Amino acid sequence: MGVVALTIRPAERGDIHLLADFALAMAWETEHKRLDRATVERGVAAVLAQPQRGVYRVAERDGKVVGALMITYEWSDWRCADWWWIQSVYITPEARRSGVFKALYRSVQQEALQRSDVCGIRLYVERDNHRAQATYAAIGMQDAAYRVMEETMPWVAELIKKE
Length: 163
Prior knowledge:
Helices cover 34% and strands 29% of the residues. The protein is an alpha+beta fold. Helix 1 (16-31) crosses helix 2 (37-49). The longest helix has 16 residues, at 16-31. The model has no long low-confidence stretch (mean pLDDT 93). Residues 6-163 form the N-acetyltransferase domain. It comes from Pseudomarimonas arenosa.
């Protein structure tokens, strides 16, 4: 029997708890951080309620959500257009290495290619996550040669527990 086709769709309010589950799992798997569920659920709900913050896409196989990502926006004055940033990527363990991320990415790419207000697609990846880097390179993404620098506000430390 062949692989069941994927359906890519925008996330809906009914996906909030599942998207929060994905964010919690991803933070633990990639950084061994425990996030505050209530905060994450409010964060997901804020994106769904205010599309100027971003959008989520989910991948379904046989009626079950098996992956998701979020797109946020960064204005480029150099290009007079937005970069679309892919964030909060999560593929369920049983669906990994089966083309789910590729399908999600291609849906984002196809939409971006049709718009004159999008100058490109970016994402960030953990420095030591070589498997993810290989996945991104395989779909045509390139190392942008930037390092991400940050300063986290003190109140955020209370929400994220490093273990």
